[in-house]
Amino acid sequence: MKLMCQCCGIEKEFADDEEAFQQGWDAPPHFSGYVCCDLCPAVCVVLGASHRLAHADWEKHGRPDRFSVVRCGTDETFGDPDLDAKLDKAAEELMKMMKVQ
């Protein structure tokens, strides 16, 4: 099956919907009504949040090989050099809290 991201327009072939989901795509049946690749946050399509700065960066420097809020997020979060570190620290703290309980 071939899917096309409703945000950036990239197309990719998958064996089935489960393979697409395992590779990070938001697509039916796990996400109904929207198809987004592993680099485009579904919030951009669902809520109409701008993601244009990321797409412009990809045109200039190539698509990233993995998701990063700094290079793939909404225009509001794009390019904040401290954001990934802040998110990593918050996730680490959350994991510590979960282990305690």
Order of helices and strands: EEHHHHH
What coarse outline follows from CA principal-axis ratios? globular
Spatial extent as radius of gyration: 15 Å
Share of helical residues: 40-55%
Distance, first to last CA? 43 Å
Q: Largest beta sheet, briefly? A: 2 strands, antiparallel
SS class: mainly alpha
* Residue windows where pLDDT falls under 50 for at least 5 positions: none
Number of strands: 2
Estimate nothing, just give the exact number of structural domains.
1
What's the pLDDT, averaged over the residues?
87
Fold topology:
Blueprint: E1 2-4, E2 11-13, H1 17-22, H2 42-46, H3 52-61, H4 69-72, H5 83-100
Antiparallel strand pairs: 1-2
Describe the structure.
- The protein has 101 residues and is mainly α.
- It has one domain.
- 43% of the residues lie in helices and 6% in strands.
- The chain contains five helices and two strands; from the N terminus they run ββααααα.
- A two-stranded antiparallel sheet has the order 1-2.
- Strand 1 (2-4) and strand 2 (11-13) form a beta hairpin.
- 18% of the residues are buried.
Keywords for this structure?
43% helix, 101 residues, mainly alpha, globular, 5 helices
